[in-house]
Amino acid sequence: xxxxxxxxxxxxxxxxxxxxxxxxxxxxxxxxxxxxxxxxxxxxxxxxxxxxxxxxxxxxxxxxxxxxxxxxxxxxxxxxxxxxxxxxxxxxxxxxxxxxxxxxxxxxxxxxxxxxxxxxxxxxxxxxxxxxxxxxxxxxxxxxxxxxxxxxxxxxxxxxxxxxxxxxxxxxxxxxxxxxxxxxxxxxxxxxxxxxxxxxxxxxxxxxxxxxxxxxxxxxxxxxxxxxxxxxxxxxxxxxxxxxxxxxxxxxxxxxxxxxxxxxxxxxxxxxxxxxxxxxxxxxxxxxxxxxxxxxxxxxxxxxxxxxxxxxxxxxxxxxxxxxxxxxxxxxxxxxxxxxxxxxxxxxxxxxxxxxxxxxxxxxxxxxxxxxxxxxxxxxxxxxxxxxxxxxxxxxxxxxxxxxxxxxxxxxxxxxxxxxxxxxxxxxxxxxxxxxxxxxxxxxxxxxxxxxxxxxxxxxxxxxxxxxxxxxxxxxxxxxxxxxxxxxxxxxxxxxxxxxxxxxxxxxxxxxxxxxxxxxxxxxxxxxxxxxxxxxxxxxxxxxxxxxxxxxxxxxxxxxxxxxxxxxxxxxxxxxxxxxxxxxxxxxxxxxxxxxxxxxxxxxxxxxxxxxxxxxx
Length: 617
Known about the structure:
Layout: H1 3-10, H2 15-21, E1 31-32, H3 110-119, E2 127-128, H4 143-155, E3 159-160, E4 170-171, H5 174-193, H6 202-214, H7 216-239, E5 245-259, E6 283-294, E7 301-311, E8 331-332, E9 337-347, E10 352-361, H8 363-366, H9 389-392, E11 397-406, E12 412-420, H10 431-434, E13 437-448, E14 451-462, H11 476-479, E15 481-484, E16 487-501, E17 504-517, E18 520-537, E19 545-559, E20 571-580, E21 585-595, E22 606-616
Antiparallel strand pairs: 1-4, 2-3, 5-6, 5-22, 6-7, 7-8, 7-9, 9-10, 10-11, 11-12, 12-13, 13-14, 14-16, 16-17, 17-18, 18-19, 19-20, 20-21, 21-22
């Protein structure tokens, strides 16, 4: 029997229970619950017999009361029911047990195959069993129990649950017993193939022959099922996409609208506009992502992502004219683009992860986001509500990072990274080190499974014409405190998340930024932002996520030119609920309100509403 058949039969969970209850002529009637099992790699040691020496073990099967003893093999050959020889061969040749061949005219019953399929499922909960009597929910009432007990104790061919019982309330069937019988047949064949044939006695071979005869039809049915699985496996292997690469996809439908007058006043750094009552129209955007995740060792990851996106940026001058209105997804890719291209691999026995990125290695890749709403396709619906924008946004894309875990359970983490924004541009003022770049360091502490803290520092450099201090959020002056002139910034952040009770999490962040104009060291600005988050994972059903975000988008609290400071305070108030229909489809209605947009009470409140639908495969 080939390896696939052996593995399939070995994994069948019903073996021991049925052996204890099965009579020689009737199906089992004992009730026993269904649960998943897994095969064990352990093998019960073979008992030794002092009379035969260390390498020659002889066992004697003891029949139950009232049953005749099993027939002894008196000739060097034993015949299987279909006439195939499986008896003892000369000592120099390996022994082989006969395998029951399916008859061509036998049809496989569909309900039987469904049962067999159930029994072949496995989990990580099975311990090795060395005696049938360890299974407390069955009784040794017939010869089949005694026969299988003897085989199990000597050859270690069956496994069971850790508590020694079967689960559920269903009758055990003859197919379960047949699967167990095949497992023991294969175990004996393994011993024979391993040139330890003298460990298998004629008495055991005779018992196996009798059991084969009793369950010939069931064995044939199982064999037919295995043939079908082999054919299906071969078909899948022949038509699989790749042996090393998995394709994962996400499609987001993003309808939305905003309400309120266009922001027509900002301190400086953004366009001024005339008042316009509700300038935006209802829109329907989309984003498509295809991730090609490749692993060469089983522990590393090469990610290549293709993306196409078309969702309006609500901060545009013709729309809301404020960065605070931006949704989690925005922009136009103008076709399909490579959005991610990086390689990750472990080191130091899995206590470290190293990243090398050629494109879109982002700051939330090189550092950990502790707060729970960092998915643009499945969490916060606003750009600000995802994560601390002054820490986790900036020059990024190409570079390297290393993440280290310390402590017995890895509760301490140190993340270091360097990424550049225009590394592929070799002209003056660009490149890997002379263009916009970010160096970062983060310390994460997770004292328990319910509590996590993060402390981050990032040093950023923005080139002329590519300044984005607050990550495209906050006021215009907070994003470009010195206009388009090259700027450096030192950014300090703190974040936390606490699972207060089951299905309720409290989190948030605080960020402080000190910016300096590179060409004029006397120009500086201080920018602050903060947020509190309340999460409700699996609120009504598994896969759901409710969220509330309350915070202040980045605000210039101090500037070397006093009139450039933000005079008022905007507040961001957001609520959303992701409802998961299943593992593949979810829908997220939500809205957020921005008061005093651009930190100016002259501007009217803006309300943004969305109805995001996400498909994942």
